[in-house]
Recover the amino acids of this structure.
C-alpha cells in the first residue's frame, strides 16, 4: 500500500535549473521535494507528496482534512 501525504510549500530551491525543487513542510518536518510534475505550484500551496515527488496541488481545506483523518488514525502526531 502506498501513501501520499500533503505538505505545504515553503520555498523554491534554485540550485538546479533543470530540476524544480522546493522545501515542503509536513507538520513541522521540512523536506526537499521534487515539484517537476506540478509546475503551477506557488509558495504556500499544499501538494500531495509520495516518495519525494509532489504529484498534485491540493486546496488548503483538503490538506487539513487529510491531516485530521491521519491524526484520528494515530498515523501522525501534531
Amino acid at each position: 500500500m502506498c501513501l501520499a501525504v500533503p505538505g505545504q510549500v515553503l520555498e523554491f530551491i534554485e540550485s538546479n535549473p533543470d530540476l524544480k525543487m522546493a522545501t515542503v513542510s509536513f507538520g513541522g518536518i521540512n523536506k526537499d521535494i521534487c515539484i517537476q510534475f506540478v509546475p503551477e505550484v506557488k509558495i504556500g500551496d499544499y501538494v500531495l507528496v509520495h516518495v519525494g515527488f509532489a504529484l498534485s496541488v491540493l486546496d488548503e481545506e483538503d490538506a487539513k482534512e487529510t491531516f485530521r483523518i491521519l491524526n484520528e488514525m494515530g498515523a501522525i502526531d501534531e
Observations:
- Helices lie at 60-72.
- The chain has one helix and five strands.
- The radius of gyration is 12 Å.
